[in-house]
From TrEMBL:
Coiled coil: none annotated. The keyword Transmembrane helix applies. Pfam families: DUF475 (PF04332). It comes from the Bacteria. This is DUF475 domain-containing protein. It comes from Rhizobium rhizoryzae. Keywords: Membrane, Transmembrane, Transmembrane helix. NCBIfam families: PRK14013.1-3, PRK14013.2-2, PRK14013.2-6. The chain crosses the membrane at residues 12-31, 37-59, 80-110, 130-151, 171-192, 204-224, 236-258, 264-284, 296-314, 320-338.
Length: 356
C-alpha cells in the first residue's frame, strides 16, 4: 500500500474505531430488545444503513466545514473538531430529537426518554408531526448558506459560468438573496393548507433570522477577538456558525432515520457513526488542501446545499426518500470533482505546451 493511501486511511482511524464500537453496541442492543439472532442482525444492519445515509447526506457538510475551518486558527480548528463533534453526535443525534418531543408533547426531558424507550411508535409519531416546522427552518437556513456563496460580487471562479457569473453581478444589490428566499417562502406557503401555511412561514422566518443573527454575531465576536489578539480571528463566531450549520444539515437525517427505525438509541448509534466520518473527511480536506487542489469542489457542495434546501421545502408537500437526497448531493459533488480534475489536466497540458 502506498504511503499516500496509508496517510489517507489514517484520517479515518477514529471513524473506524467508532464504527466498530457502534456496531457492537447495535448488536448488543438488538439482542437485548429481540433475543433472536435475526433480530440482532436486523438492528446491526439498520445501524450500518443509517451510518451510510448520514455520510451520503453530509458530503457537502464536510466540504463547507473545511471551507470555513481553513480560515480559522489551529486552536479554534481543534475546538471545533473536539467540542463540535460532541455537540454534533450527542446534541443533534440524541438531545435534539428529545427536545422536539419535550416541546411538541409538553412533557419533561425524563418523560421523553421514557417515552422513547417504552413507546417508540408514539415517539416516532410526534417526531414526524414536527417535520413541517423543522423542514421550513432548516431549509431556509441552508438556502441562505448556499445563496450567500453564489451572490458574492468578489467570487471570480465559476463552475457553471453562464449562471454563476450573472448571479455574482446581482450580488451588488443589497439583500437580493433575502428577497429571493422570502419570495420562495410565500410561494410554498400558498401551496400548503391554511393551518400548515402559518406554521411553515413562522418556522421559515425563524430560520432566516437565525442565519442573519449568526452572521452578525459571528462578525461581532470575531471582530472583538481580533482587537484583543490577532491570533484569535476566525474563532468563536465561526465556531457558532459551523455548529448551527451542522444542526441544519442534521435535521433531514434525524427525521428520515425514523423511517427505518423508531428506536432513538439505534438512530443515535447509526447517525453518530456517520458523524465521525464527516469529521474525518473535514480534517482530511483541511490538512491535505483538497479544496485548493480541486477548483470546483466547493461549488458542487453549495449546489448540493441549495438542492437539499429545496427538497426540505418540497418535503412539506410530498415525501421524498432520503436516499434520493443523499445520492443527489453526492452526485453533484462527484461531478464537480470530475470537472476539477479535467480543469487541472487542461492546465497541466497548457503548461507543458508553453515549456516546449
Amino acid at each position: 500500500m502506498s504511503s499516500s493511501s496509508s496517510s489517507t486511511l489514517g484520517y479515518f482511524r477514529w471513524a473506524f474505531i467508532v464504527t466498530f464500537v457502534g456496531l457492537v453496541l447495535g448488536g448488543v442492543l438488538g439482542w437485548q430488545s429481540t433475543g433472536t439472532v435475526s433480530g440482532t442482525l436486523t438492528v446491526f444492519f439498520i445501524c450500518a444503513v443509517l451510518a451510510v445515509l448520514e455520510i451520503s447526506l453530509s458530503f457537502d457538510n464536510a466540504i463547507v466545514n473545511a471551507n470555513k475551518l481553513k480560515d480559522m486558527t489551529p486552536v479554534w480548528q481543534q475546538r471545533f473538531l473536539t467540542w463540535g463533534i460532541l455537540i454534533a453526535v450527542f446534541g443533534m443525534r440524541i438531545v435534539f430529537p428529545l427536545l422536539i418531543v419535550v416541546i411538541a408533547a409538553g412533557i419533561g426531558p425524563i418523560d421523553a426518554i421514557v417515552l422513547a424507550a417504552s413507546r417508540p411508535e408514539e415517539y416516532s409519531r410526534i417526531m414526524h408531526e414536527a417535520h413541517l416546522p423543522i423542514a421550513a427552518f432548516g431549509g431556509t437556513f441552508l438556502m441562505m448558506v448556499g445563496l450567500t456563496f453564489f451572490f458574492n460580487h468578489e467570487k471570480d471562479v465559476h463552475w457553471v459560468e453562464f449562471l454563476e457569473s450573472r448571479v455574482a453581478r446581482f450580488a451588488t444589490i443589497k439583500g437580493v438573496e433575502i428577497a429571493f428566499v422570502l419570495l420562495l417562502i410565500m410561494l410554498f406557503s400558498q401551496l400548503l393548507p391554511e393551518a400548515d401555511a402559518s406554521t411553515f412561514v413562522h418556522a421559515a422566518v425563524y430560520g432566516l433570522l437565525t442565519f442573519l443573527l449568526v452572521e452578525v454575531l459571528g462578525g461581532v465576536l470575531d471582530a472583538s477577538q481580533k482587537t484583543m489578539s490577532e491570533a484569535a480571528k476566525g474563532g468563536l463566531g465561526a465556531f457558532i456558525y459551523l455548529e448551527v450549520l451542522d444542526a441544519s444539515f442534521s435535521f433531514d437525517g434525524v427525521i428520515g432515520a425514523f423511517a427505518l427505525t423508531q428506536n432513538l438509541f439505534i438512530i443515535a448509534i447509526g447517525l453518530g457513526i456517520g458523524a465521525m466520518y464527516v469529521r474525518s473527511m473535514t480534517i482530511m480536506l483541511v490538512e491535505k488542501g483538497t479544496l485548493a487542489e480541486y477548483r470546483y469542489l466547493e461549488h458542487g457542495a453549495f449546489y448540493a446545499i441549495l438542492i437539499l434546501s429545496v427538497i426540505m421545502y418540497v418535503q412539506t408537500l410530498y415525501h421524498i426518500p432520503e436516499v434520493i437526497t443523499g445520492l443527489g448531493g453526492a452526485g453533484l459533488i462527484g461531478l464537480s470533482l470530475w470537472s476539477s480534475i479535467r480543469y487541472n489536466r487542461r492546465e497541466q497540458a497548457h503548461g507543458a505546451e508553453a515549456l516546449t
